[in-house]
Amino acid sequence: MIAFASRTGNIRYIVSRLQLPAVEIEEGRTLSEPYLLFTYTDGLGEVPQQVKRFMERNGRYCRGVIVSGNSNFGHQVFGGAGDAIARQWQVPLVRKIDMRGFADDYEAIQHYYEQCFRKEPVR
Ligand SMILES: Cc1cc2nc3c(=O)[nH]c(=O)nc-3n(C[C@H](O)[C@H](O)[C@H](O)COP(=O)(O)O)c2cc1C
């Protein structure tokens, strides 16, 4: 499962290309299974407020964070939301993506997702 927040549509676009199970973060949403968080970056390298609130509810099920930012903001704050989440919640930063990213970004996400949520074979 991917839980995503998208304000201007970049992440929504990426998620639509991935063909992985995904839910959009909404106020009060509670998840009861592990997921990867996919967030944009706000302010100057900040975690969006709605994502902060989501993590307060659901942080314990987060297995990694993917972040989209805009590298024009400068390397100090590019994708800073991903760095902040990874640090605070002690989860891997799976991928930092510039805007809508490229095919290799999508492949990296797909690969991590499969590794992370691969079902063990039934014996
Ligand atoms: C007000 C505002 C502040 C932003 N601040 C940052 C920032 O500090 N660092 C960064 O990498 N991107 C920043 N961005 C860029 C977005 O994170 C980036 O465009 C992202 O792809 C948006 O995803 P979305 O279209 O799914 O909402 C900012 C965008 C806006 C509108």
Automatic annotation (TrEMBL):
GO molecular function list: FMN binding
Stretches that traverse the bilayer: none
Pfam families: Flavodoxin_NdrI
NCBIfam families: nrdI
Listed name of the protein: Class Ib ribonucleoside-diphosphate reductase assembly flavoprotein NrdI
Organism of this sequence: Cohnella candidum
Originating gene: nrdI
